[in-house]
Amino acid sequence: MRYHDITKDDMRNGDGLRVVLWTAGCGHCCPDCHNPVTWDPEDGLPFDAAAKEEIFEQLEKPYISGLTLSGGDPLYPASREDVRLLVREVREKYPDKTIWLYTGFLWEEIRDLPVMRDVDVCVDGKFDRKTKDAKLLWKGSKNQRVIDVQASLCCGDGQGPVLYCGDYAPDFDEMLMRGTRAACEGA
Fold this sequence. Notes:
With 187 residues, the protein is of the alpha/beta class. Helix content is 27%, strand content 21%.
């Protein structure tokens, strides 16, 4: 597996402060992707022991909520086994940390992958510029879903995945219902 970056104290890619691994390789090539530099699976750096240690050093910090895998696509076929092994190791070493995974694949295509047994939240689906909305919670376009993986594996059969959250943060939903001005004034 190759990667482009490891970001620390990230607040945009899952709940809380997170460490994010930006993997190389993506076959979806979504128009207006926010990170096209990660598409080439041969680009970036080899994911080696030093990179893994950098992630583990961050996960040791009590204020870090967990690991997020993004990219590219962490489930790019050439990276899947390495991602599975990393996720398994993180789950074993840091059982109280959450693991988020962003992928362009749909839940229905990936739910049976072994890696999903250790993922807490999955944001699925290709980015769709036609339904882009900067106010969406944890995703870039309306077609994507923020999925509670463990609840979906346990209880979601036949009914689709169990969503982790709605499209917008509760405060924003309330502002829409009450009107922005009234919400800002605390009315």
